[in-house]
Amino acid sequence: MNASNLYEYLERISNLVRTSIRKTGLVHDLQPVQTEALHYLSRCNHYSNTPVAVAEYLGLTKGTVSQTLGVLVQDGFVKKTIDLKDRRVVHLQVTPRGEKVLNDLVPPPILTSALENLPTEINDQVGPLLEQLLMALQRANGLKTFGACKTCCHHRLQENGLRMCGLTQEMLAEADGEKICREHAKPPVAA
Ligand code: SF4
User: Fold this and answer.
1) Structure confidence by residue, pLDDT tens digits, 72-85
2) Average pLDDT over residues 160-188
3) Among 7, 126, 139, 177, which residue carries the largest CB count within 10 Å?
4) Rounded-to-integer distance, Cα 190 and Cα 12, Å
5) At 61, is the pLDDT very low, low, confident or very high (cuts 50, 70, 90)?
């Protein structure tokens, strides 16, 4: 496949998904970018739930993200806390209200119904192929991976079953393994 064909597919798919997110988000007065920020915050770990990390993940300016997060906080979908070690840093957590709204919006029904209509053998290939494409795109362009913590080269699973981050030397909770992180780094590919 060449890049032009791929672009046409991805552009059409992302337009359809965004339109669906826009329509369902309107019920809760949420713009697509607000839904995306809320979804990111529901999946990231405590090193990554800052306004700067949201801006990096969404590829937006700090000003745009600041406005987006302001609305989410004001409407009670997200709550702000001050970092205990560095009072200049703000953390953002999705509230139970935000989680409830996300359950209505994600995944967009347009995708659920499409996958249900795919033959099983095709459906099984979609995830792995998209993952490969995403990884190739990130590698080729030097982009952050924002991957799940348990797949990071710094992730340490100790003999006692506890998890530790080799980068920060801090212990991690069991649930942190599945969360995405702005410091995530893929293990080097074996030669
Ligand atoms: S192990 Fe990697 S992904 Fe997990 S918290 Fe540490 S740097 Fe982030």
Assistant:
1) 999 999 999 999 99
2) 93
3) 177
4) 36
5) very high
Indicate which residue's Cα is closest to atom 1 of ligand 1. 155
What percent of the chain is predicted at pLDDT more than 70?
98
- Report residues whose beta carbon is within 6 angstroms of any ligand 1 atom: 45, 47, 149, 152, 154-155, 165, 167, 181, 183-184
Span 63-73, average pLDDT: 96
Compute, in angstroms, the gap from residue 105 CA to the centroid of ligand 1.
28
Which domains occur in the chain, in start order? 3-110 (1.10.10.10), 118-178 (no CATH)
> Cα of 172 to ligand 1 centre, how many Å?
9
pLDDT at position 190 is: 64
**Ligand 1, pocket-test mutation among 45, 157, 176, most atoms within 8 A of CB:** 45
Q: For residue 150, which atom of ligand 1 is closest to its CA? A: 4
* pTM, to two decimals: 0.93
Pocket test for ligand 1, best of 149, 170, 176 (most atoms within 8 A of CB): 149
